[in-house]
Amino acid sequence: MNKTMRRNPWDALVPTYERWMEPCSALLAQAALEQAAPNSGSDLLDVAAGTGALAVEAAERGHSVHAIDTSSNMVGRLTERLRPYSGCSAALMDARDLRYGDDEFDAAFSVLGVLDCGYRTAKSLAEMVRVVRPGGVVGVVHWADPVGAPFFEPLGRAVDRLNDPGVGEFTAPFSEYLQRSEIEHALIGAGCADVRVESVQVPCAMPEPETFVDEMHPIFRMHSQYLAAVSCHRDRFRRILAEEVRAMAAGKGGHPVARANVASARVPHHAGRVELAVRAPHDLAEVD
């Protein structure tokens, strides 16, 4: 491999993501499809599709689905899952540079995807709007809680219980687009109209306390504080984390429920496209 090439960290997450994250994201995908309500047999684009929570559900509903992701392993797995559905496919592609023509789809979706792209979010949303026909819909889903998936709640409490200055206090993975107002402004700035945002809660399956670390390691290793805690306090940290998972299962400190915002918007019929008008969330006035 060329030394200048960097492996996509999501390539190593396919089995773990499909087993533990997709059951939750599938419920969010269903909520997104029901809210946006695309016409029967629509041509849909799923951006940052992962293992296919929305793509497979949309294909089951009779839509023609094209799914993209930047992880080759995710795309490979999704290609397998979409094979039984006529007119559906998956491709390796960057959300900021969609290789599709203007007005090519009836709808474009991204579940737990483009709103977690930092400075790339604005461009990705603008691209999604560009490829959707006037009158079509754009749907996005993002966490409404800075910890994201409930898996990170016991992780955060375990990190804080270590009380190690070298590890530090837990830093939640997400900080942007957590408010409904932020998502609404982002979609309007990308050229959408008639924005609708709803907050939802869905259950999230959790590994057993004794196997929690092993099951979640492929996901948690993307978090620097987890790596520091495991490196410096391996046995103690595993014990504390198992205790926190057990407490969560017993209802102490919060049940495993995922909180997210589901949004949909219409692509206007007027001529012309917005190049880029999305401001960073920290520049937005809080209106919720």
TrEMBL record:
Keyword line: Methyltransferase, Transferase
Protein name: Class I SAM-dependent methyltransferase
Keyword Transferase attributed: yes
Highest taxon of source: Bacteria
BP terms from Gene Ontology: methylation
Matches recorded under Gene3D superfamilies: Vaccinia Virus protein VP39 (3.40.50.150)
Residues of the Methyltransferase domain: 45-136
Top-level EC class as recorded in UniProt: transferase
EC numbers, comma separated: 2.1.1.-
Matching CDD domains: AdoMet_MTases (cd02440)
GO molecular function list: methyltransferase activity
Pfam short name (any one): Methyltransf_25
